[in-house]
Amino acid sequence: MTRRSVRSACAVLLTAVVASAAAACTDDGGSPAGTVSKAASAVASAASRGGDVAASASAAAEEKLQNFKNGVNAGKDVKAGAVTEQGGRATTNITVTNDTGSAKSYIVQINFRDSGGNLLDSTVVTVDDVRPGTPKDATARSNRTLAGDVTAEVGRALRH
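Above: the chain sequence. Below: its structure as tokens.
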């Protein structure tokens, strides 16, 4: 399989999974956490194939998050902390602070980068039922082992 076909297959797979996550966040009774878990698995699969595929997966995830139905851009509500290592994987604590008048759920893309700013991995995390004015923490974990000086950033965050 060529590099281009691997990237295309991963982008299609990730697009389908993230679209499912978007559908799960509507009022049809689906579970956003379960569907986003599938999205994280798809990103893990893509990321395991290398940096080019991780970048493609991240771009596909960001594109789908951008088109997320009923989602409101909430990047200012989410902060990523320092990266630590747990079981060989990079992890970061994310803190979500809801500034609306009612409990909301969030879907957050976290990008892991090396000291040169190169994308190493990307993952998707959901944080459900964040009460107004009360910060809620969650953990984002890389999909594969990352070495060196790794930082985490919020790629995109949507509130629904």
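The chain has a mean pLDDT of 74.
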